Amino acid sequence: MSVATKGNAVKVHYTGRLTDGTVFDSSSNREPLGFVIGDGNMIKGFDAAVYGMAAGEMKSVTIPSLEAYGEKREDMMIDIPMDQVPADIKPEIGMELSLQNQAGQPVPAKVVHVDEEKIVLDANHPLAGEDLIFEITLVEIG
After folding, report:
1. What confidence score (pLDDT) does residue 102 get?
2. Which CATH number describes the domain made up of 9-70+127-141?
3. pTM, rounded to two decimals
């Protein structure tokens, strides 16, 4: 029986949960997720979990935050003075905004603080700092 190794194109079904049991993503009502093991397009821990699995095999794996989306970074918390907030934006806590990085690419950010002087945006990935639990079924090695 062959197992998935680096460079293999694979398809998996998965359900991702936080440690409190909250489901944050699942492929159960979609086509399986396809990717190439080791190509850098998946979080490190997910890639490593699929490595060595056989088609049809199912496993549950806990991926620590450092092998997922990393820890929350303080440098991704951005203070913006109120006089620099566009007039057509009325910031509220929880609001999603889009910033641009130096390369001109969009970076999603969430408003986490608002007062008269400034707003604070969190541009960390929403799952940064979270340990993730995945139920993974390897559907196909191809």
Report:
1. 85
2. 3.10.50.40
3. 0.82
In a 13 Å sphere around the CA of 3, the CA atoms on its Cβ side amount to 9
- H/E stretch holding 63: strand 58-63
Strand order in the sheet with 96-100: 77-81, 118-122, 106-114, 96-100
As given in the structure block, the two tokens for residue 96 are 């999603």
Q: Where are the domains of the chain?
A: 9-70+127-141, 74-122
Q: Which residues contact 86 (CB under 8 A, 6 or more apart)?
A: none
Residue 1 has pLDDT above 90, yes or no: no
The Cα-based distances of 15 to 5, 29, 88 in angstroms read: 22, 11, 39
- Decide yes or no: CATH 3.40.190.10 for domain 74-122: no
Say which amino acid occupies 127.
L
Confidence of residue 142 (pLDDT cuts 50, 70, 90): confident
